[in-house]
Amino acid sequence: MKKLGTQRIVLFVLMTLTAGLAMTAAAEPLILTAVAQEDRIQIFADGILFTEYRFRPEQKYPYFYPVNGPASSESVTTETSEPYPHHHSLFFGCDRVNGGNYWQDVNERGQIVSETVKCQQAKGDKIVITNQCLWKRSGAEPPFRDERTITITAPSESLRIIDFDVEVTALMDAHIEKTNHSLFSARMVPELAVTGGGTLVNANGDKSEKGTFGVKAPWCDYFGTRNGVTEGLAIFDHPANPWHPSKWFTRDYGFFSPTEMNWLEDGSVDLFKDEINRLRYRVVVHEGDVEKAEIAKLYQNWIQE
Fold this sequence. Notes:
Elements (H helix, E strand, L loop, with lengths): L1 H26 L4 E5 L3 E6 L2 E7 L8 E5 L22 E8 L2 E3 L8 E11 L1 E2 L1 E11 L7 E13 L2 E12 L3 E4 L4 E6 L11 E4 L5 H5 L6 E8 L2 E9 L10 E3 L4 E4 L9 E4 L4 E12 L7 H9 L2
Antiparallel strand pairs: 1-2, 1-8, 2-3, 3-4, 4-5, 5-6, 5-13, 7-9, 9-10, 10-11, 11-20, 12-19, 13-18, 14-15, 15-16, 16-20, 17-18
């Protein structure tokens, strides 16, 4: 009996060490690699494509696509989809700026053009990309230039993170009218949308378009199950952003965006020449639902960095 007890103790110790090593391995950040091409930068996590930052000259604006889930390696966002095919995956723009449209419609009505893109760090535990963009419109002077710093990390097998930090400089006095087409946004694939059986939830626990539309919250998470794999994408709104916590424009078909522009008290906002506004967002692409991914904890960790 004494020998059997010793065997059990040894087995328990070995199991504990093995579990501990597995947990440590699971928590190790993945090695990221960036591959620059003429019109995009591809980012790989341990050799598997995570996302591309696309900036072709004919695009309406630069955007991320695909944004692949960590478990499925399939995009959780859609490059274009009905209704409203002008939503391109994960993007930043704005309508109704000095009469221009830097969100939808033809490029002559407004276009955010990538001028310079640099990969400041192309390999390691993070990828850092800087991008300068000019907001152009046919027959009019550009109202804005923006400078983007994009930092991508993969803290574990089940998480991918995109930090999107943008400084928007007014090149002239700019008048932005009330619009729901504005700022940082994501469009999920139909299979993960509420209409496809997915879940949209905010930091308050409110769900779906009915519960989250026009509601202030520091974050929202959109997730669902596709081919037996549960994955999602959360957007975090930084406390230093204007209007934080922002009201959210949400749709059950898969669109969501932290933007106060649809609820401006005076119906518009004015920016003056040389004024600079900084906006920071974090995108968390995760395996599992909002609880398994610990989205609330991840948000608190982010704002304390």
